[in-house]
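Section 3.1: Structural characterization of target chains.
Under the original work plan, the team committed to producing a structural model for every single-chain target entering the pipeline before any wet-lab resources were allocated. The record below documents one such target. The sequence was received from the expression subgroup and is listed exactly as submitted; it comprises 128 residues.
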Amino acid sequence: MPRLLGVEIPGDKRIEASLPYIYGIGPSTAKRILEQANINPDVRAKDLSNEQLNQIIQAITASKLPIEGDLRRELQSNLKRLQAINCYRGIRHRRSLPVRGQRTSTNARTRKGPRKTVGVQRAKEGAK
């Protein structure tokens, strides 16, 4: 398995499909990086030479895109900033509710978690 910027990418896939395993690189960015590095996108990742891997790394760093740890830190700091200034989106994040205007009366189970049933208690057997 080739290793790019601290991430192991699958060797048996085409390099165009392997690059999106790096957090922050999607399919279109992967195509653009391979064009800049002058590498055929149909080549398998395990068949790349060290020189070609270095060309890919140089193309990624030249693109000035935040990837992996930098991008994760940036996203976390954005969320913390929204929560700190008590804006609507920050409050929704803090309460683990949908942020972008979805309905919550029904649905929203992915964000809210499993149902928490309230007020349904059975009467005790002895109190008839």
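The beta strands are 3-4, 7-8.
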